[in-house]
Specification:
By secondary structure, the chain is an alpha/beta fold. 33% of the residues lie in helices and 16% in strands. It has seven helices and eight strands; from the N terminus they run E-H-E-E-E-H-H-H-E-H-E-H-E-E-H. Helix 5 links the parallel strand 5 and strand 6. Helix 3 packs across helix 4 and helix 6 crosses helix 7. The chain is globular. 33% of the residues are buried.
Length: 236
C-alpha cells in the first residue's frame, strides 16, 4: 500500500528508488508504467496524465521475460509491434539496438543459449527500441552474479549518457543506487511513502572507490540500520 507519494523526476535524470522489503518500490514503478490502474491521484509524464501502458515508457523487470521460442532479434523486434515503421526500418532499429547493448552476432540465438547478463541486455534493447522518453528498471540486475552485475551497471550508465533518456531504477542494493543515481529516493514501509531524497553530487562516470560515494552509502545505510531503532521491515 502506498500513501501520499509525491515525487518529481526531472527529464533526463537517473533516479534510484531504495527501501525496505514491502515498501512499495515495485508497485510505484508499475503505476508509472501504467500496468496498475487501481490508485488515487495522478501521474504525469511531460505534463500529460498517464492512463495506461505506452510506448513512451520502456520497462525491464528482474526476469528478462524473453519469449523462449523467438530469437533474440525477434524478441527485440516485439518492442516495435505497434510501430508504423516498415520492415526494413524495423530491422535496422533492431540491429542498431543489439549493437548498442553488445549483442551483435547473437541475432539468431534463442534465449536458452544466452547467459543471464546477455538475456538482460536483450531485454534492455527491447525496452529501448521504441526510443522511449522514460526507461523503468525493476531490479533488472538483482539475479546476476557480482561481476556481471558490475559490467551491466557500467553498460546502463553508458546507454544513459549516450541516449540521455530519463531512467528510474528500483533496487534493493544501496551501493548500486549510489553508483548509478543522480538522486536516491528512500521509501518507508507500511504504508509505502517517500521518506527523503538524497542527491549524489558526483559527475558520471564515477569511481566506485570514491570516498564521497562511500560517505553517501553510509548515510543511506543509517536510514535503515540505526542503533535502538526497530525498522518497519527488514532492509533488502
Amino acid at each position: 500500500m502506498l500513501e501520499r507519494i509525491d515525487i518529481d523526476v526531472p527529464s533526463g535524470a537517473f533516479t534510484c528508488i531504495v527501501g525496505a522489503s514491502g515498501c512499495g518500490k515495485s508497485t510505484l514503478l508499475r503505476l508509472i508504467a501504467g500496468l496498475d490502474p487501481d490508485y488515487e491521484g495522478v501521474i504525469h509524464l511531460g505534463g500529460r496524465p498517464i492512463r495506461g501502458p505506452g510506448l513512451e515508457r520502456g520497462v525491464v523487470f528482474q526476469e528478462h521475460r524473453l519469449f523462449p521460442w523467438l530469437t533474440v532479434e525477434d524478441n527485440v523486434g516485439l518492442g516495435l509491434a505497434a510501430s508504423a515503421l516498415g520492415p526494413a526500418e524495423r530491422r535496422e532499429l533492431v540491429q542498431s539496438h543489439l549493437r548498442m547493448v553488445g549483442l551483435e552476432g547473437f541475432e539468431r540465438a534463442f534465449p536458452r543459449a544466452l547467459s543471464g547478463g546477455m538475456a538482460q541486455r536483450a531485454a534492455i534493447a527491447r525496452a529501448l527500441v521504441n526510443k522511449p522518453q522514460v526507461l523503468l528498471l525493476d531490479e533488472p540486475l538483482g539475479a546476476l552474479d557480482a561481476l556481471t552485475r558490475a559490467q551491466l551497471q557500467d553498460e546502463l550508465l553508458r546507454l544513459w549518457m549516450g541516449e540521455r533518456i530519463t531512467v528510474i531504477l528500483v533496487t534493493h542494493d544501496i551501493e548500486e543506487a549510489v553508483f548509478l543515481g543522480e538522486e536516491v529516493v528512500v521509501m518507508d514501509a507500511r504504508p509505502g511513502r517517500i521518506r527523503r531524497g538524497l542527491k549524489v553530487e558526483r559527475p558520471h562516470p564515477r569511481d566506485r572507490a570514491d570516498p564521497e560515494l562511500a560517505r553517501v552509502r553510509r548515510e543511506l545505510l543509517a536510514e535503515f540500520v540505526t542503533p535502538g531503532r526497530v525498522p518497519n521491515a527488514s532492509p533488502d
